Amino acid sequence: MVERRPNPDELLARVDQEEKENARGKLTIFFGSAPGVGKTFTMLEAARLAMEDQHRSVVMGIVETHGRYDTASLLIGLDLLPRAVREHRGIRVEEFDLDGALSRRPDLMIVDELAHTNAPGSRHLKRWQDVEELLDSGVDVFTTMNVQHLESLNDVVAQITGVVVRETVPDAVFDKAYEVRVVDLPVDQLLERLREGKVYMPEQASQAVEHFFKEGNLIALRELALRRTAERVDAKMRGYKAAHGIEESWHTGERVLVCVSPSPHSASLVRSARRMATTVYAEMVGVYVETPASLRASAADRERLAQNMRLVEALGGEAVVLRGEDAALETVRYARKRNVTKIVVGKPTHPRWRDVLRPSFLDDVVRLSREIDVSVISALSTETRGLPARTEDRPPRTLSLGSYAASFGAVAASTLISWFGFGPSQLADVVMVYLLSVVLVSMRFGYTASVLATVLSILGLDFFFVPPLYSFRVSNVSHSVTFATMFVVAIIISRLTERIRDQANSARGRERRTASLYGISRELGLAHSREALLKVAAKHLREVFTAKVAVLLPGSGGMLEATLADEGTTSPDDKDLGVAEWDWLHQRPAGATTDTLQSARALFVHLKGSRGRVGVLAIYPTGETRLGDPDERQLLDTFAGLVASAIERTQLVDEARRARLRAETEQLRNSLLSSVSHDLRTPLAVVTGATSAFLDDSAPKDEATKRELIQTAHEEALRLNRLIRNLLDMTRLEAGALKVQKDLQPLEEVVGAALNRLEDRLRGREVHATIPRDLPLVALDSALIEQVLINLLENATKYTPPDSPLDVTARVRDGAVEVEVADRGPGVGRADAERIFDKFYRVREKEGGGVGLGLTICRGIVSAHGGRIWVEERPGGGALFRFTLPLDTAPSDDRSLPASSPVPGAEAL
Question: pLDDT, tens digit, for every residue of 94-143?
């Protein structure tokens, strides 16, 4: 085993990660394939071992024994955390007490059933979220879960068992666990336990055997659990290798890597690799390395490569595209990263002499692979899916008429410059001028043109500058060495120039991909609505892929509907919708450039987010679109993933908004019903009691008693009338049914009318009304403003001592009449100054009565007059309620109050 020093940046990041993990508690999951395998029993045994042998403080947070005696007996003598009791629809539900666990902070907390959904009213929706908070506080946790609760396997389990599991745990929680202990039990033993009633009650057990606990289901679930655990162990092993700088592959499991290329023989190679992987029960990875030279590949080669990569996926393998200058080095490096045990390479078909000039890909792989086995397979196929065979591994080089002309022109110009500038006597300078022409031709016209320029330069040097002049004969053997050296140097320069050009083209391609991904990611992040998001996606997809775009999303009936983002999109026809439906159902690309429904005029790619499918993306190619190119397809898949995540984000925002609205509606409804039921019941009870006493023959019949009973019933009836009036006014205000009819009127008359109506309520109080004589007439609706004053004065009488004074003042300020109602009560704090005008909000819930609508109605009426209302703290104690009425508002005959947001539940009153 060879260990190399890791990258310093990676080492620093790993140290930071380890520090975070050390500060966090450790999660141990007891993982099983089905209920009844013994997860809770094994967990409790481990908890006892930790307490007795390791002397750790252990608390039983919540354990579900399901009536099993063996399991319950393990709880004897252990510290049990009292459960939290929640009320849900009249039913008492016992849940895990998270706050109690955090206050205890033991070394180890036992929390059974990680996937459990908490009762409404709990801090978190899911129990795994409670566990996450425990871990963040530094408490270690033991927990249990079954394989069907893993989020990524939810669909697979539903397909196998026919049962959709609603309670799931994100894979990230499972993957971050410190330890996963598999609790396994053979299927026949599990079924025997089920029949004996050790899993469910007898009547439940018989139903379970017929449905979920079928033998085939249990075998499949057992395999899923073992495979998922093996995947986690494999990831942990690869993490260890990376942490210790170990590059060699460890043959802990078989994994086959096949080298894919545009060669027509590559399809046969992929099939052979698939047979080899199947024989040893290994997974297959198909790898293609995109080098700078591969950018010159022809359209036929790109199409053949795309077909070969699709073949890898069709055979159940993973298709991977790498980028680098050295294909062999990148292949072996990736093989070690994936812990590959066998590399499959095709037998070389090029002439042997080429290996003398440059080592072959096979030789480089064999030399670099070391501990990895390399299998060389002969591929006899000469055709792939009807495409013509090609015997060359590299794209054919062609020379255009322009390249010919450039080569001849450059050599001719060099000859003239050398003849007139140096002459035959300065051969070294002449050679430099010719080499310069070769470099210029290579930079502009490529390798083939530079080779032609090299040959022409040598001929020109021999004919015009080497004695005997004007002849191709060579009199001095040393000149032959000069020619050979010049040829080799020129070829090397041409090669290097070509490589620089290819690298520059490759860099431009990477820059294009990076810029396009950055652009769409940034704009998708800024889009707040689905319409804006689709416009951004359509614009970038059209620019990057030179194609028309359509997005199909599920409608209200569950069927796909075409959503047109802007004028550049194409409307799908019935045939397109059929292909899109196939893609939606099967979650595989279909249409143009695929093996499914190839006659379709568009390529349909499914949009899949973290929670599942969200829609289908349709790409309508044009003459410049290269959807068959694997690199373009990979970029398209990345774009599709970004768009799907963005659409899912908008869906989550909408769901959160609807959930918040439902919660607010429920809260408002409960507040309304609670307040109304109490405030209606109280006056009705008083009226009923007073009238019953009045009608009772045995009750005293003197006039004083009669008057007192009638007075009490009258006051409570007035209170009930005010409550009903406020509710009706609020309902009319919400519906926009109240009309504001303004007339120029003196404000003192409105104030006087309000005080007269409240004469009984204000008896025993000093009320000071200060209205200047020169106060101008105000355009207002007298009935509505009178209602505002009545509500403010009634509010003051509810929350102030019976003998405290009230002040009503009016003045002109900033082009408006400002009306002030002041009291000497407890006042309103700054935190409540704005909320006090909200519906159903009361600063002191149990004081004053009412439902909290009076001030809301005041704000609606004042706003309809063009003014504003607010509350301040009064110097010396008390509250100052002020509102303004504009002076420059012309009177109007009819003006509706604007409808505000509806009050949930108001329609039912």
Answer: 889 998 999 989 999 999 999 998 888 787 888 998 999 899 899 999 99
Rg (Cα) of the chain, in Å, rounded?
42
Q: In the structure, what pLDDT confidence band is assigned to residue 393 with cuts at 50, 70 and 90? A: very low
Q: How many CA atoms lie within 13 A of 408 on its CB side?
A: 6
Q: Are 113 and 64 in contact (CB under 8 A)?
A: yes
- What φ, ψ does residue 289 adopt, rounded to 5°? -105, 120
pLDDT reported for residue 898: 44
d(CA 465, CA 487): 16
Question: Is a pLDDT exceeding 50 seen at residue 515?
Answer: yes
User: In the 8-state DSSP scheme, what is residue 908?
Assistant: G
Q: What long-range pairs does 761-767 form, CB within 8 A, spacing at least 24?
A: 761/793, 761/794, 761/797, 762/793, 762/797, 762/806, 764/802, 764/803, 765/797, 765/802, 765/803, 765/804, 765/805, 765/806, 766/805, 766/806, 767/805, 767/806, 767/807, 767/808
Q: How many CB atoms lie within 10 A of CB 332?
A: 25
- Give the whole-number percent of the chain exceeding pLDDT 70: 81
Distance (Å, whole) CA 784 – CA 862: 9
Q: Is 297 exposed, middle or buried (0-12, 13-18, 19+ CB in 10 A)?
A: middle
Q: How far is CA 173 from the centre of its chain?
A: 16
Measured in residues, the chain has a length of 909
Q: What share of the chain is helix, strand, coil (3-state, %, to 5)?
A: 50, 15, 35
Let me know if 832 is exposed, middle or buried by CB neighbors in 10 A (0-12, 13-18, 19+). Answer: middle
User: Tens digits of per-residue pLDDT, 552-561?
Assistant: 888 877 788 7
Paired with 547 in beta bridges are 621
Sheet of 560-563, strand order: 560-563, 547-554, 612-621, 603-609, 590-591
Residues near 57 by beta carbon (within 8 Å), at least 6 away in sequence? 51, 79, 106, 107, 108
Mean predicted confidence (pLDDT) in 728-742: 64
CA distances to 33, 170, 287 from 112, rounded to whole Å, are: 16, 17, 44
Q: Per the omega criterion (within 30 degrees of 0), is the bond before 468 cis?
A: yes
| Residue type at 770 in one-letter notation | T
Q: Is the pLDDT of residue 144 over 90?
A: yes
- Strand pairing category for 342-346 and 373-377: parallel
* Nearest residue to 375 (alpha-carbon basis) of 405, 417, 351, 347: 347
Strand partners, 288: 321
Per-residue pLDDT, 554? 86
Residue 132 to residue 139: CA distance in whole angstroms: 10
